[in-house]
């Protein structure tokens, strides 16, 4: 009877580990720098995966910093290729994060008010 109890405890620990590891593997941060396709404005931002969302923080070319409480919902994720994020709020945005490889990527940030696009490169951690 004691062997079954020990075996059961080991199985519980193994299952717990199996549920934790994928969540750790999915943690990722995209540090991006991008420019407006319509002018000289530029911006740097960070997108950090938080479950089914990416949190967003940005600094414009003037050095101001926006809060990180904006959450972009993951609308679609194509395995090994692209993540499409949406933000619905006072302003609506669509963001495409595109993997070039495991450490480099690209961003296309679209403002839905005027369809202005911002494009640039990202490093992935």
Query: What is the annotated CATH architecture?
Result: Beta Barrel
Task: Please identify the top-level CATH class.
Answer: Mainly Beta
CATH topology: Lipocalin
Q: Gap between N and C termini, in Å?
A: 47 Å
Oligomer: single chain
Helix amount: 10-25%
Number of DSSP-assigned strands: 8
- The SS-based structural class is alpha+beta
How do the SSEs run, as a string of H and E? HEEEEEEEE
Q: Would you give an account of this structure?
A:
- The protein has an eight-stranded antiparallel barrel.
- A hairpin with a 4-residue loop joins strand 7 (104-111) and strand 8.
- The protein has a single domain, classed as Quinohemoprotein amine dehydrogenase alpha subunit, domain 2 (Lipocalin, Beta Barrel).
- 20% of the residues lie in helices and 51% in strands.
- The chain starts with a helix and ends with a strand.
- The longest helix is centred in the N-terminal third of the chain and has 25 residues, at 2-26.
- With 125 residues, it is α+β, with helices and mostly antiparallel strands.
- The protein is globular and about 30 Å long.
